[in-house]
Known about the structure:
This protein is an alpha+beta fold and 418 residues long. It has helices at residues 10-36, 50-57, 68-78, 127-132, 138-149, 193-197, 202-218, 230-251, 260-270, 327-339, 355-360, 376-396, 399-417; strands spanning 38-43, 84-89, 92-97, 99-104, 107-112, 124-125, 155-161, 164-165, 168-169, 177-188, 222-225, 273-274, 279-289, 297-306, 309-317, 346-351, 363-373. 43% of the residues lie in helices and 26% in strands. The model is unreliable at 1-12 and 22-33 (pLDDT under 50).
Amino acid sequence: MQTQQLDVHEQPSDDAALADTAISRLRQLSMKLAMAQLDIEVFDAMQPLEDDWRALERDNLQSLHQSYDWCAAWVSAFQRPLAILKGAHAGQTAFILPVEIVKSRGLRTARFIAADHSNINTGLFAESFAEAGRTIDPHEFAGRLRHALTGRADLLLLQNIPLEWRGRESPLAGLPMVQNQNHAYQLPFLPAFEDTLKQLNAKNRRKKFRVQSKRFEAAGGFEYVIPETSAEQHGLLDIFFRLKSARFASLGLPDVFADRETQTFLHGLIDKQDDTRQYFGLQMHMLRLKGEHEGKIAATSGISRKGDHIICQFGAIDEELVPDTSPGEFLYWQTISGLHGKGVALFDFGLGDQTYKRSWAPVETAHYDVVLPVSPFGVVAGAAHRLVTRGKAHIKARPKLYKFAQGIRARIGRSSKN
């Protein structure tokens, strides 16, 4: 009778497989327990959530665009119905997703408040839940969100979410998503402005700055100004609207700042500021000329701040004044250099691939959209959103095709005005 020899390598392999199975089952059990403790409520007003909301937004990694004051300014201007999702986990507030209902052609879409003017969205998550989010079953999470919005929305569409933001993984990362066609561009701040420039092509940038400075001096000089009074800030914002409208018209593009609600919203942000927590909703900056163009504004921009994160919301130039100085880019130099030593860690140029952003920003961040159907109509709309988004991404990834598409868009815009 022969005795069977046991391969010494087999037993450990079997033990490893059993261990993996046990870990997998424990993880599944952990997910089920976590989901059992998660409750989601829907609120149609912001005020009952203010204390919890402001507590969550103190976390430096929560986006400015989900802050209470930012959302309140939008809600006051647009008056859309709200369906704010509040999650409670183990008896504590786990998250708030500030969502409004946008109705178009019979479709009810639940979107982040002010989504049309947001450069980055994270939602608001308790740090403990964000860490534990990896143990939440994404299918169960999606089901809970879908159930909460049933009867209120056809589609949950949460756009422009980085899967990881400054080292933290998004708890939304496991939900059904499509990559957004737009990326965002950031410039990390180092202790000194000269150190920050070293991340870029510092030699060429300094040379360009010297050339611009000489051209400004030849035209009579300039001053970089951050208006101090609220009235001056509001007046400069109105100048921005005028300059941007002229720019859009010259390109044959629709003016996204033209409607009364958007202008009311942005004006409302100017008065949302709190120095104790390093927060301002909108602050206007400008380059004002001297000499023959005394008092005229060559460039203006609007920036926002939450904690150590600065976001450039928009900018505009007067194209009839000193065009050879590139006043918009020169204004960025003034702003960025002036913010050093003031507790800023990141200057964010926001969404959209433009040459000046790439020249300033060594960090490129991909964004994603949560696309979660709630009703059968939402299934169709969600599929359409995925298709359109992928199509735009395909075009934007091909410069010649993108330029051709922009030309067609501009011609259509100009013809529609004639």
